[in-house]
Structure formats: C-alpha cells, structure tokens
Design a protein that fits this description.
The complex is a heterotrimer of chains A (about 375), B (about 300) and C (about 260).
Chain A (H helix, E strand, L loop, with lengths): L8 H23 L2 H26 L7 H21 L5 H5 L15 H24 L5 H21 L1 H4 L5 E2 L3 E2 L2 E2 L3 H27 L1 H19 L3 H27 L1 E2 L6 H14 L4 H18 L4 H18 L3 H9 L21
Antiparallel strand pairs in A: 1-4, 2-3
Helix pairs in contact in A: 1-8, 2-8, 2-10, 2-11, 2-12, 3-5, 3-10, 5-10, 8-9, 8-10, 9-10, 11-12, 11-14
Chain B lengths: L1 H31 L6 H22 L8 H23 L8 H23 L15 E4 L2 E4 H23 L1 H11 L1 H6 L4 H23 L9 H16 L4 H21 L2 H18 L15
Helix pairs in contact in B: 1-5, 1-8, 1-9, 1-10, 2-3, 2-4, 2-8, 2-9, 3-8, 5-6, 6-8, 9-10, 10-11
Chain C lengths: L6 E10 L2 E11 L4 E5 L6 H9 L6 E6 L3 E2 L5 H7 L1 E4 L11 H8 L6 H5 L5 H13 L15 H14 L4 E5 L7 H14 L4 E5 L3 H7 L2 E6 L2 E6 L1 H6 L1 H8 L3 H5 L5
Helix pairs in contact in C: 3-6, 5-6
Classes of the chains: A mainly alpha (about 375), B mainly alpha (about 300), C alpha/beta (about 260).
Chain lengths: ~375, ~300, ~260
C-alpha cells in the first residue's frame, strides 16, 4: 500500500459488505426469538475472544492456550457485580455456606458498575502483561510459551475452585437478578444487552482491523515470520509481543463480562483447559490471520455446538476431535483459506502465511 | 523427621511417574519438534490395557495365578501403546514435523477422540484395578512407612530410564536417533532412514507412556480422562528440563515432583501448584531454555 | 596514535561449549571502508559478524562502535538502532509479507510500539521505498509475497531492506551466494557505491568476487587473524596459501560455517 487508500471497486464492495453485516447484526432482534437472540448474543461475545486470539495467534504467531483465563477473569468481575446487585446488601449465598459472615474487602468495590467494567479489562490485561513480561523478555516462546499459558489455566482454575468461600468454588457465581437497577431477565434488558454486545463486537472489530493494517500490525506479522530477523532490523519484539498479548487478553476480558450478562453464570469449568483450547479452534476453523474468519469461526462453531452437542453428545466430541485434526492438517487457513482458494485472486500474492510462527532450534 | 522422609519419598514417587510420562514427550519434541497432546491418552490406554489383562486373568485363570497378571500387564501396556503410537505417527504425526503448535492442536483432537472412545467402550465412571497382593504393605525407613507400590514404581522407572539410556547412547538405533536429532538433513544424506527413526522413536515414547499408565493403576482407580491430570505437568517437566538430553528431563521431573509435594504439604494443593508455577517461571528467567539446551548457530534458534 | 575508526574489535574471543570459535581476534574498520573477511570454513568469520551485531556475546574482548559505544552491553535491536545492519547468509526476509511491506518496516524510523501503531505512510517514505524498489529491481514485484521471490531476488530484497535501514556499518554474510555472474557484478558495484557513505564488512567465499572488488582483505584462520592487507599481499602470503591449499585442510572439514 504505497499510495494513499483509494476507493477502488473492491474496497467499495468490502465496505458495503461490512455495512450489511452490521445492519444484519443490529436488526437481528426483529427476527429472532428471545431464546435465539440470547444464544446469538453469547456467540457474539465469543467472537470478541476469537478476534483477540487471532491478533496474538494468527498475526503474531504466538499460541495462547490461556485465553479462557482472561475471559474468565472478566466474567468473574462482572459476576461479582451482579451477585452483589442481586443480594442488595446481603452477603452472597455461597459465602454464608462457607462460613464467612463479612464481605471480603476485594469484593466491596465491585458494587460499583464502572469499577467492575474497568477491572474486567484491567485484571486480565495485567495478568497477561505480567506473564508476557517474564516470558517474551527472555525469549521464551513457541511451544514453551504455550505450555506456560496452559499451566496458568490449571493453576488459576485450581485456585478458583480451592478458594470456595471467596469464589463460589466449583459452582462458580450465579443467581443474578438486576443490572443497574433493571431486571436482567426482562426482554427489554436482554435486547439492550444484545445491542450493546453487537456494538462492542463491531468496535472491537474496527480496532483490530486498525491494528492489523497499521505498521504495528506489519511488525507483528514480521515477528511471526522471523522474530530474530525483526531484532536485527532494530525492533524489540518482546515489547510488541507484550503489548499485543495484553490487548488480546483485555479483549477476552471484555468478552467474558458480556458473556456473563447473557448466560447468567460463570464457573471454573467454563474457563478451563478445554474451553481455552476450543477458543483456539474457533480461530483455526474460521481462518487464522483473517479477522472475519476468526469472528465467523466463533459464531459458527458455537452455533453448531448448541445445535448438536445436547442431542448427540458423543457424536459431538468425535466431531470436535476430527475437526481439530482435519483443520490443522489439511486446512491450516481455515474456511477463509478455503474460500480464497476458490476465488482466483490476482494481484496481491500474499495468501497463506505458511509458518506456524514458531522458531525451532535448527536441527 | 519421619514426616520429612515421607514427603521426600512422596515427592520422589511423583517425580518418577512424571519422568516416565515426560520421557516420551521430551524425545518426540527434541527429535521431531512435535508436541503430542495425545500422550496423556496413551497413558490412559496403557492403564486400560492393564485393566483388561486383569479381567482376562480373573475370568479364565485360577485365582492363585491372579497376581501374575501384572507381570504380563507391563509388556502388554507397552505393546498396545507402542502399536497405537506407530499408527498415530504414520497416519498423522508425520504431516506435522517441525510444526509444534499445529501438532499440539491436532494431537489434542486425537486425544479428545481417544477419550471419547474409552468412554464409549469402558463407560465414563472410573474403574478399579486390583493390585497384586505382593504390593500390600511397605517398608519402614526412619520411622516412615514407604509403600511397596511406590517403591516398585520408582524401581520400574529407574529400569525404564536405564533401558532408554542404553537405547539412546549405546545402541545403533539410538545413535541414528541422535544423529537425526542433531542434524536431520545430514543424517538423511548419510543413509539414515529418518522416517524409520521418527516412527520408531515416537512409538517407543508412546510405549513408555503405556507403561506409565500401567504403573498408575497401582495408585488408584482409572478413567477416560486419566491422562489429562498428568499431561500438563509432564510438559512442564520438558520445559524445565530442556530438550535434547536425558539428564535434563530427569532433573526437570525431580524438581517439579519434589517441589510440588513439598509446597503442597506446607500450604495446600491449590496454592502449592501456584508456587510451583511461579518457581518454574522464575527459573526460566535464569535459564530460558531449561536445564540443558542445545545451542545452534542458525538465525532462528 | 590510531586513527579514528567506526568499528573496532579488540581481542575478541568466543566460546561455544568449550570450543573457541574466535580467539583473540582484532579488527578495525574505518569510515567508508569496504573490508572483505575471508578464510577457510570454520575460521570464525560468521561468528565475528555475529559478535558485532550482538547475536553472540563474546567471552572476552571489546567491540567499540564510533570509539565510544561498547556494543557488548547492548541488545541486538539496540545495536541495529545504533546503525549496524546485518545481512545473513541465508536470505532472511519475511515470507508472508509483500516486498513493499518488508521494506516499509525495515525503513529507518522510530521503532517504539506507539509510534509504529500510529505511523502513517508519508509521501517521502513512499518515495524512499519506491526508489529502493527500483534500485533492487523489484519495482514490478512490490505487491508479491516475499516468500514467492527467487533466491537471488530475496538476497536483493534483503540488501534493499538493509539499505533502507540506513546503517553506518553494514555486515554482509556471503551476499552473492546463489547469484548469477551478472547479479554478482551488479552487487559488487553496488557495494562500492554504498561504501562511499558507509562502512561495509563482507564475508565471502567467492574469490573471484573478492579479487574484483576488494581493496583490503582480512584473512582469518581457526579463529585468529592470519593476514591483513591488499588482495595482492594476501595472495602472496605463504601462510594464506597453506591454509587454503595445504596440509591442514582436514582440520577444517569437520566444521562448516552453516
């Protein structure tokens, strides 16, 4: 892109496409039942995680199997607010069962909605920054980093389960009634929450698109292609990796907050190893390295899951396993890669990022 | 004093199992840059193989011979996991060489399928395997009772380690393996069949996982998701130990096993895990590539 | 008194697990010098470049940039920022990005995260990239994925990236490997052109190339300085001839520069 952006026919069509998608998203409440709308809202929240995950995995080549945690921390923040709002000054039920008779200090500020939203972003972001600081700076990367993120998932979930009195343990936090004084179960609130989610998704999409198209995004791709080479050009990859990992975690936190609003519960099992790796699968299926692909992959996989997993639980697991294998081995660029194969695109010859982004010691 | 002895012993016992599991992982990762997430399921398969062997003994042999099932179960577990590993390598893993992250995801899918298969065949609830009666009781050392079962496991691991050592460093096959590990292209040029070496190595790693599964039946009931409890810890061993030398894996397993047990004893199970994780991250600040690291001069090392 | 140098290595020693790849090597580079570093396989030439650009830390010795900056204390990206550019032996470009994008990120600029996040492509930057594309003969392939270029084109792209980086010292590891004779000559002329404003160290095996373009040559052997001088002086030297043709050949075969 040497010249300034011009409105070529291709770009116009793209913009029309985006506008149509946005319009469809916002008008969905007109066509869908409350139940379906609620499901869609949940999928849109997942799409936000997928976008964040794509930034770090698809574009920077760092695989995080820890996004369930960032998602979960955002969700817990919101859940704490909702729980306190529902209790109306009373102690949350599970604390009473565990013998607490006073609200722990760190629960107190979550009575405030603004603080909650801030924390829902800041807590996951700082955790990511911390982990990133202690890994990327020392060039711990590739599989090593991935394994550490997975270990982070295990210890965080064990902690949440173990500290029952403060976190609700295995059952998590549930039983909400109100948000900002409004009933959370009413159709109106639900619709409103849906619109908010759709708006956030679109905003996040625009943000991610900006990041990816900026020179920053190009440096990220360069890091994916050859981290060491980037260093000898004069960039410090560690800083870039930390920043993008933090942004990615913050997005997961936002998604988690929205998720709780739609689903009404968060528990350790919703953020553990399996959900974390499923998030990666959404991106893989849609097509890593394309934002639309990641978002579509999340919605599609979750729609399929809600359709089939309850009726055919066994079949669903086999299907999920098979999808993992097939996509990774035969369709490394996911559905978007498949789509672009059919489209005989001339001009830009830059379709598949062949690397999976890791540098391995030369054997 | 006896508490300390017991804790140390327990730590050693945990280490030995981790080592058995991590051994195969470290070798496959070092050799092929493949991360095998289905390794945990190979453990599970080893455990169910033992369960099946036990059932067969129970059904067709006189009760007096029952205890001997375990003697047979070890090679059976190894063999079944070995064959499965071979099939896995030939059908899937070989497409994933040099792509660690992709291999991680694909093999996770394999693990998912294998777990579900086990659930369909054996049912979701855990099943118990009766340990041979020889293993009841224990020996008293410094006032602490060390169960025979755990002693046996430590012995078994030592034996496997010794066998691996001789295989890798003393046999022709092992020499080929090391050659491929250090310079794949050169080894291929010198007439080493890298395909064969890869397949054999992966299968052996899988077989050892099978033995680990067999050993685990001594410690408690087994279920379809048996492997998932151990797999992440085993990977941490690889991260901590570094890749390319057996001694790194041994040190990594010892470190994690002993510290885990100690921390859990001093605090509680969940906090202990956090502490171990923090220690690992701290250690990696000092040695980012683990205890032992192979150095190379290429740009992307 | 020594005249001021842009780069100076004093008694540099590098060890790899007990093996001394470089032993007490010294090298001085003046501003605007084009220096060729030659020697048999395993002489430690590439390792010297690695030391200068920060990829390898010397066990002992000093590397000084512009008589004042001690490079041993700097990280790779800081060294690159100071103005030392490196071209590796195997072309290392970013394969999934376009040729133009490769140049864009290599271009001299402030490289902080936020500066880069809000960076706009200015007309003059675009012109610089355009100019560089022409110079390396890739103007028609600006939108190609760099991974799809031929080996020679990748070499050129990497040279172009390095020039846009505008370093004061360029370190090139076998820049003409895999190039045709014509491309090789073009590269040589380019090097001479560049050396009017910048200093260059070239590691090269292609003796024909060295003969044609070298003014000063440094010969290394077994990690040490063997001879330094003009090409004629070097060619006349008995020890150099012995190292290249003589009896001690077998000692070098065991290690390769790869």
């Amino acid at each position: 892109m040497l010249t300034l952006k011009k409105l070529t026919p291709g770009r116009i069509w793209l913009l029309i496409g985006y506008a149509a998608a946005a319009a469809a998203l916002f008008s969905a409440p007109l066509f869908l039942s409350d139940f379906r709308l609620n499901l869609l809202a949940k999928f849109l929240a997942f799409a936000i995680v997928a976008l964040g995950l794509d930034l770090i995995w698809g574009f920077t080549g760092i695989l995080s199997l820890g996004h369930g945690i960032f998602f979960g921390l955002g969700a817990y923040a919101m859940a704490m607010y909702l729980k306190l709002e529902a209790g109306g000054g009373k102690l949350p039920d599970f604390m009473g069962w565990s013998g607490l008779n006073q609200l722990p200090w760190f629960w107190k500020p979550f009575e405030n909605f603004g603080f909650t939203v801030l924390m829902g972003i800041l807590i996951p972001a700082s955790l990511a920054l911390l982990l990133g600081f202690f890994t990327f700076r020392n060039r711990i990367r590739g599989v090593y980093f991935t394994i550490l993120t997975q270990a982070l998932v295990i210890i965080t979930t064990t902690l949440l389960v173990g500290q029952q009195a403060y976190t609700g343990g295995t059952n998590g936090v549930t039983g909400y009634s109100k948000i900002l004084g409004q009933s959370i179960a009413s159709s109106d609130t639900k619709r409103m929450l849906y619109w908010i989610t759709a708006a956030v998704l679109i905003a996040v999409f625009i943000l991610c698109r900006y990041i990816v198209k900026s020179r920053f995004g190009k440096v990220l791709c360069a890091i994916r292609d050859g981290e060491n080479r980037v260093r000898f050009i004069g960039y410090n990859p560690a800083v870039y990796q930390m920043v993008i990992f933090t942004i990615s975690a913050a997005l997961a936190g936002i998604a988690g907050m929205l998720f709780v609003l739609h689903v009404g519960i968060i528990s350790p099992s919703m953020m553990g190893i399996v959900p974390s790796i499923e998030m990666v699968l959404w991106v893989a299926i849609g097509g890593r390295g394309t934002l639309i692909g990641a978002a579509l992959g999340a919605v599609l996989m979750n729609w399929a899951k809600s359709e089939f997993s309850t009726t055919y639980p066994e079949g669903w697991t086999y299907f999920l396993g098979a999808v993992f294998i097939v996509v990774v081995v035969f369709l490394p660029n996911g559905l978007m890669g498949l789509a672009s194969k059919f489209k005989l695109g001339k001009g830009k010859k830059r379709s598949e990022p062949k690397h999976d982004g890791v540098e391995y010691p030369a054997v | 004093m006896e508490v300390f002895t017991l804790q140390l012993f327990n730590g050693l016992s945990v280490s030995s199992i981790l080592l058995l599991i991590a051994l195969g992982l470290a070798i496959t990762f070092g050799l092929m840059k493949v991360i095998n997430m289905a390794h945990g399921e190979l453990i599970m398969i080893g455990a169910y193989s033992t369960y099946l062997t036990q059932n067969i003994f129970k059904d067709i042999l006189p009760p007096s011979l029952f205890d001997w099932y375990f003697v047979l179960a070890i090679p059976v577990s190894f063999l079944i996991a070995f064959v499965l590993g071979l099939i896995l390598e030939m059908s899937l893993i070989r497409f994933l060489y040099g792509r660690p992250l992709d291999s991680l995801l694909a093999t996770w899918g394999v693990g998912l399928v294998l777990q579900q298969l086990a659930r369909s065949i054996f049912g979701a609830p855990n099943v118990a395997v009766t340990s041979p009666s020889w293993f009841n009781g224990g020996v008293e050392v410094l006032g602490a009772v060390l169960p025979y079962k755990r002693l046996f496991i430590i012995g078994l691991v030592a034996l496997c380690l010794l066998a691996m050592y001789f295989y890798i460093y003393r046999s022709l096959e092992g020499r080929r393996m090391r050659a491929v590990m250090q310079n794949r292209d050169m080894a291929a040029c010198l007439g080493v069949s890298t395909r064969r070496v890869d397949a054999m190595t992966f299968a052996i790693g899988s077989g050892i996982a099978g033995i680990a599964g067999c050993a685990l039946t001594l410690l408690g009931p087994i279920g379809p998701s048996l492997g998932t409890y151990y797999i992440v810890d085993a990977f941490m061993v690889v991260v901590l130990g570094g890749v390319g030398k057996l001694v790194g894996t041994v040190l990594g397993a010892m470190g994690i096993g002993v510290f885990n047990t100690m921390f859990e004893y001093w605090t509680n199970a969940s906090l202990g895990k956090v502490l171990v994780f923090l220690c690992i991250v701290a250690f990696l600040q000092w040695k980012p590539m683990g205890f032992v690291a192979m150095r190379s001069r290429s740009l992307d090392s | 008194m020594m005249e001021s140098s842009i780069l100076r290595c004093d008694e540099v020693t590098v060890e790899f697990d007990g093996f001394k790849a470089v032993q007490g090597m010294s090298l001085q580079l003046k501003k605007g010098e084009l220096r060729f570093l030659i020697g048999p396989n395993g002489a430690g030439k590439t390792t010297m470049l690695d030391v200068i650009c920060g990829k390898v830390r010397p066990a002992s010795g000093r590397v000084t940039f512009k008589e004042s900056v001690d490079i041993a204390k700097k990280k790779e990206h800081q060294i690159a920022e100071l103005g030392i550019g490196r071209k590796f032996q195997a072309p290392s470009i970013f394969p999934s990005m376009t040729v133009a994008e490769n140049l864009e990120i290599a271009m001299r600029q402030r490289r902080g995260v936020f500066t880069v996040l809000f960076a706009r492509m200015k007309a003059e930057d675009a012109a610089r990239i355009e100019y560089q594309l022409e110079m390396i003969g890739l103007q028609d392939k600006a939108d190609w994925r760099a991974g799809g270029l031929s080996h020679g084109e990748k070499q050129w792209l990497e040279i172009g990236m390095m020039l846009l980086q505008e370093p004061e010292v360029l370190l090139l590891d076998e820049p003409v490997a895999g190039m045709t004779d014509k491309e090789t000559d073009k590269t040589g002329e380019l090097l001479i052109e560049i050396s009017r404003q910048r200093s260059i160290v070239v590691v090269e095996h292609d003796m024909e190339f060295v003969r044609n373009f070298a003014s000063k040559v440094t010969v290394m052997h077994e990690g040490k300085l063997l001879k330094e001088g003009t090409m004629e002086e070097v060619q006349r030297d008995d020890r150099v001839a012995e190292v290249y043709l003589g009896k001690r050949r077998d000692a070098d075969v065991s290690r390769s520069t790869a």
